[in-house]
Here is the input.
Amino acid sequence: LFRSVTRLIAENAAGNVERGSADLIWLNGENFSTLKRANLLFGPWAEEQPNFALVDADRYPEMRQDFGVKTEGFESPWTRSQLIFYYDSERLIEPPRTAEALKNWIKENPGEFTYPRPPAFLGTTLLKQLLVELAVNRSQSSAEVESTFSLPVTAAFDTFSAPLWTFLDEIHSALLREGRHFPQSGTQLRAALYDREISLAFAFSPNEVVSSISRNELAASTKSYVFDSGTLSNVSFVAIPKNAPSKQGAMLVSNFLLSPEVQFRAAINAKLASEPVLAFDNFTPEQQAALRVNAQAPGAVTPIELARKIQEPHPSWTNAIEREWLKRYGGGAPSKGDE
Here is the structure.
């Protein structure tokens, strides 16, 4: 993902405006905002796809926003994501369900928690979750907090991020290996839970635990959940570079990704474990029944819990948080980790 965006920017700088190396790319909000501002994306095209109507964007406005940035037809949705926490229920009876409870639990159970080293995507996601929840706890108005995070970061960053750094300062020495070393990815984090190095982990895929149990990468006793106030959620999109050599083919592939059959197969596939973007009533009755069964599989998060969603902050908050984290705890600037 990161390399694809870097290559696209380099191609444009070299004057390659017609024969790019990619026809369709998966973007997150941070990179979409960068490429859209630089006028490096083809479009608008997304809402012209026959299958776009199946996402019911009028009912689900998040299908037209990427980290709060309006897509305006330059991206097409293809899967949903949401932050979940998971644990082995044979080792941990009652997991923490708020940021404050998480802080207290970490301090009472030193060495039992860690997170991927920012700017690894998953580690930064946890920081943003804590940033939003702690700011809401401190503020008299949740609407004010939501408005602040939906806009580009300003001088208010110091004020709104202060509770986050206080939180991290308090838990740092109680992390696995006393915060001296961090996992580099969600894969390493999952392995640490499976190997019983830690007791609580997290992922940015609602079906992470279900698929990992099916692959024997997590114990069958593993359960997952979201915080009481909700967790960060977003939609993943695909976009067509402005210099894509096969734009028509890219649109055909994107439309195929939005078909009920592909969305259904991706949801029940143990390796993909994708969360569909299609409105549920646009699946066949048989597919709906199978998806309901899948939602009750061992380790699954309940649909009621997944309804508790928090909007992603504007992409500029991601950059600001990562810079400040590296300054305080990083001692360097590593490359992006895996998703």
Notes: The beta strands are 25-27, 65-66, 69-70, 76-82, 84-88, 200-203, 222-225, 231-239, 309-311.
